[in-house]
Amino acid sequence: MNSPALIIFCFLLLSAFSHAAVQDFCVADYSGPQSPAGYSCKNPGKVTVDDFVYSGLGVAGNTSTFKAGITTAFVSDFPGLNGLGVSIARADLAPGGVVPLHSHPGASEILLVVEGTVTTGFVSSANSVYLKTLKKGDIIVFPQGLLHFAVNAGHSNALIFITFSSESPGLQILDTALFGSNLPTELIAKTTFLDPAVVKKLKGVFGGSG
């Protein structure tokens, strides 16, 4: 096959695969098998408008833990997000409320302050700290995978909405990973340079063992 014909053949082949893969949506079928690529697609004939509507963010979250309540609209909550690469969450912060240091390995994040005053920031892989106190209407972006946090810096409740560049951004909270797990106390003490007694106390707070 000569070069022009080969180029045309490859173009047509790629085009065929491209059109075969294109579909309007892939609503998550929670009863079907799940793969690293996501949930299976619900039968289009069984999809309804309710698959694309989620009402869970209209109610304030419980602020009893860390004085912060987080409500997510990830693909595990909202089937219409499957395959679309977006999601959203709500955070309610009581005075003194904290969203502790955490990271999202699967997504970048934009935080919007809707009510109140919030001090927030992230730490780069070079250990540079980017810190800012935000007011109503301000936004900040957190690059994918970097540790970040938010603290209510005012004297009234704060409300923030967070959007993600993935329908399943993942979550790892630093404190929970260390003190809410069964990682042995002596290893945490050695790797964090904390006193073992402090580690045990924190494990008691976060429900860890070991």
Account of the 3D structure:
This is Germin-like protein. Keywords: Apoplast, Disulfide bond, Glycoprotein, Manganese, Metal-binding, Secreted, Signal. Pfam families: Cupin_1. It is found in: Secreted, Extracellular space, Apoplast. The structure is a single chain. This protein is an alpha+beta fold. The protein has two domains: 170 residues, Jelly Rolls (Sandwich); 30 residues, no CATH class. It is 21% helix and 33% strand. Strands 3-4-11-6-9 form a five-stranded antiparallel β-sheet, with no helix packed on it. Strands 8-7-10-5-12 form a five-stranded antiparallel β-sheet. The longest helix has 19 residues. It is globular. About 4% of the residues have low confidence.
**Helical amount:** 10-25%
* Tally of structural domains: 2
CATH class of the largest domain, please? Mainly Beta
Give the helix/strand class: alpha+beta
Radius of gyration: 22 Å
Oligomerization state: single chain
Strand order of the largest sheet: 3-4-11-6-9
Spans of at least 5 consecutive residues whose pLDDT stays below 50 are 12-20
Query: What is the percentage of strand-forming residues?
Result: 25-35%
Q: Helix and strand string, N-terminal first?
A: HEEEEEEEEEEEEHHH
CATH architecture of the largest domain: Sandwich
Family: Belongs to the germin family.
InterPro entries: Cupin_1, Germin, Germin_Mn-BS, RmlC-like_jellyroll, RmlC_Cupin_sf
GO molecular function, one term: manganese ion binding
Subcellular location: Secreted, Extracellular space, Apoplast
What's the SSE blueprint?
Layout: H1 3-21, E1 28-35, E2 38-41, E3 68-73, E4 87-93, E5 98-103, E6 109-115, E7 118-123, E8 129-134, E9 139-142, E10 147-152, E11 158-164, E12 172-173, H2 174-179, H3 185-192, H4 196-206
Antiparallel strand pairs: 1-2, 3-4, 4-11, 5-10, 5-12, 6-9, 6-11, 7-8, 7-10
